[in-house]
Write a structure and sequence with these properties.
heterodimer, A: two-stranded antiparallel ribbon, elongated, B: Rossmann fold, 17% strand, globular
Amino acid sequence: MGFSDFFKKKGTGSIAKDRLKLVLVSDRAGCSPEIMEQIKNDIIAVISKYIEIDLEGLDIKITQMESESNNGTVPALFANIPIKDLKSPKK
Amino acid sequence: MGEVIVVTSGKGGVGKTTTTANVGTGLAMLEKKVVLIDTDIGLRNLDVIMGLENRIVYNLVDVIEGTCRIRNALIKDKRYPNLYLLPSAQTRDKNSVTPEQMKKLADELRDEFDYIIMDCPAGIEQGFKNAIAGADRALVVTTPEVSAVRDADRIIGLLEANEMKQTHLIVNRIRMDMVKRGDMMSSDDVCEILAIDLIGIVPDDESIVISANQGEPLVGNDSLAGRAYLNICKRILGEEVPFLDLDQKQGLFGKLFGRRKR
């Protein structure tokens, strides 16, 4: 797939495909933006009990990743949570 | 015992009615006895695409409500010996009919017809539920656009939830010149995203507009779309037909003639 894929990437068709893949993961999970927001707030609340985190840089989304058993992709909750200060246990 | 097929898509304007007309006519050409049912109550269109709009006496709602017998409402297409249309009602709404009534109607037609093809309205509400109620298999029509594919995915999910036995994908209105230059998703891309089996690829073809203008389905004629539709019919009958090489056509002819157009 490498070579032809490399050229295809230039077109808007592959942008469409990538965007669709992302939007369908959350569509299929039945996960509305409101629920994502709630999950995000809950995660922030839990982690903030122990660590000070950077709320600006926080990114939580549902995405796809390669399944470990090698049978295609599976949905995954991806969370990128930058830590501001490790040394302040309990805010 | 006939088979009930629903043609659906979620999004409007992707070619459900055109697909219904051409697949139905194609199956009739292949000597199957076919009835097309327009389930889009309030927005009747299959009759004009089939060129039968002047022959409507009774409609789907009349049959459901018992105003007439099924036999009296069916319009026989004089061009093909085995093809009938049950038109929709134009002045009623989707709630005039229930899924149970549609299922009963479809089952009654199974004895007489080989294929009962339901043209589903756009959307996922009552009209959709009515159209899929009695169906054994579904043809999901989409175009290679983000909105159509997203809606198709939703429809596929709903069909699965309703335990549809077989669901196949038709990628409609594909433009090989755009796919080649990378500005349109290919049928493989769409198929990969939706993860269901492909049963047809129909190119964007101006002869579709011409055929709609005339009220004559183009299935079986020499146009690319006409050949693509006939192939879909053969696949429905279980034949293994390779997909038309639209790419090849563009590749060879496109290089010679296609560029001149630009």
